[in-house]
Design brief:
The protein is mostly helical and about 250 residues long. The protein has a domain of about 150 residues: Up-down Bundle (Butyryl-CoA Dehydrogenase, subunit A, domain 3), CATH 1.20.140. Helices cover about 70% and strands about 0% of the residues. Helix 4 packs across helix 5, helix 6 packs across helix 7 and helix 8 packs across helix 13.
């Protein structure tokens, strides 16, 4: 009579995985932390068009979770959840970028907004307000706000990875970086510039980015915190992201 398989605890699974790289231990860890995938995919999908299948996001997130388990080193003193969530998010964002789901019109308008912000910042020596950006684009303020709302759904990209990993408290973030020294230096420089530029943003934009990327709140939850509508949070988020992108590009780090 065959003996029943031994059921591993999470602690035992981690130990067996690090000691033996045993597949059964990894499977236990994947199942235990699967809720992280649903957490990340749910928040991303809430701000994406309905035509984007949440199931596809979850599938991509599984690969992110497995990669996080593969590379995680508990000796660094970082909680696995804190380490895994940016990697899961990154894997999902990678899968999204492979899909041509953003209309060309939205991409074109997003570039126009970014260029307008960059030009106005250079001319004014400060962050332009919505009315100034709309005037530079030659459109009504209401149309500009709609462009921002449309841009939000197409704003996934390298910035999202940087924002997800740009926490100043993550002193061991290099665990997940490429072993290529040039890639490590480039990633570190981008995070340094990112933190610097975020501090220069107006308080409202800065708060939205912190709540969205660091506290993992949805747009609706951020709206409740700030006392504004979800659509307004979407506009603020898009403006902040495009403003940061234009500044990063001007410094040749994006």
């Amino acid at each position: 009579m065959n003996a029943l398989p031994v059921r591993l605890t999470v602690e035992q699974a981690w130990q067996k995985w690090h000691d033996e790289r045993a597949n059964d231990a990894r499977d236990v860890l994947v199942v235990h932390y699967a809720s992280l995938i649903k957490f990340v995919a749910g928040r991303l999908s809430a701000n994406l068009p309905k035509r984007v299948d949440t199931g596809d996001l979850i599938q991509a997130g599984v690969f992110g979770l497995m990669g996080a388990i593969e590379r995680f080193d508990p000796q660094h003193g970082v909680k696995f959840e804190s380490y895994a969530i940016p990697r899961i998010r990154g894997a999902i964002l990678d899968s999204l970028r492979q899909l041509d789901w953003v209309p060309r019109t939205v991409r074109s308008r997003t570039r126009d907004i970014e260029n307008a912000i960059s030009t106005l910042e250079h001319e004014l020596g400060r962050s332009p307000v919505d009315e100034e950006i709309a005037a530079r684009l030659g459109i009504a303020l209401e149309d500009f706000h709609q462009w921002l709302a449309d841009a939000h759904s197409g704003s996934v990209g390298p910035l999202d990875h940087v924002m997800a990993d740009a926490r100043p408290t993550d002193t061991h973030s290099d665990m997940h970086m490429s072993t290529n020294p040039d890639a490590v230096v480039e990633s570190g420089e981008m995070r340094r510039v990112m933190r610097q530029e975020i501090r220069k943003l107006p308080e409202r934009e800065r708060n939205v980015l912190v709540l969205y990327y660091e506290e993992n709140l949805t747009l609706a939850e951020i709206g409740d915190v700030l006392g504004v509508t979800e659509s307004r949070v979407s506009q603020i988020h898009s403006r902040a992201v495009l403003q940061l992108r234009s500044r990063l590009r001007s410094q040749d780090v994006a």
